[in-house]
Amino acid sequence: MLAISPTIQIAESELAEQFVRASGPGGQNVNKVSTAVQLRFNVYAAASLPWDVRARLIKIAGNRMNAAGELMIVAQRFRTQAQNRADARERLAALVREALTVPKTRRKTKPTASSKRRRLETKHRRSETKQGRRGKLSADE
Fold first, then answer.
1. HSE on the CB side for 92, CA within 13 Å?
2. Helices 81-100 & 51-61, crossing angle to 10 degrees?
3. What are phi and psi of 70, to 5 degrees?
C-alpha cells in the first residue's frame, strides 16, 4: 500500500513497475545494471481515488499521461534500484497529494472608489496637458 493521506491509499496491484537502464553518468554500472524505474499508475482505472481527485490529477500530470490513462513516472536520480523505486513512489504520492487540494474559486473584484477617482484625475491632468499644447501649435506658425 502506498499511503497518500489518512483516507486515501493506493494498492500495490494498481502500480506497475519496470526497471530499465538509466542514462547519464555512472561508468560501467550504468551499462550493466537496470537501476532506473518506470512507475505506471492507471488513473482512469484507479478505484482508490475519488472522481474529482482523478480529474485534477489528470490536469496536473500533463504530458506524463499517455492516451491509455496511465501516469508514468521515470526515476533515475539515484544509483540504486531501491532508492529510485522509493523516489518514484514518493513523486507519485506528491502528485496525488497536490490533486487532493481543491483550488480556490476566483471571485471577481470591482475597482474601489478611490482607484476610480485617481484614474479619472490622471486622465483629466493628461487631457489638460494636451489641451495646453494645442494653443502653442497655432502660435508657432
1. 34
2. 120
3. -95, 130
54-88 tens-digit pLDDT: 888 888 888 888 888 888 888 888 888 888 989 99
- Show Cβ contacts of residue 115 under 8 Å, excluding neighbours closer than 6 positions: none
- Is pLDDT larger for residue 43 or for residue 121? 121
Residue with cell 490536469: 59
For 28, residues 6+ apart whose C-beta sits below 8 A from its C-beta are none
Of residues 91, 62, 66, 63, the one with CA closest to residue 76: 91
Please name which of 21, 19, 31, 41 lies closest in space to residue 85, comparing C-alpha atoms.
19
Walk me through the domains of the chain, giving residue ranges and CATH numbers.
2-100 (3.30.160.20)
Q: How far apart are CA 88 and CA 74, in angstroms?
A: 7
pTM given for the model? 0.68
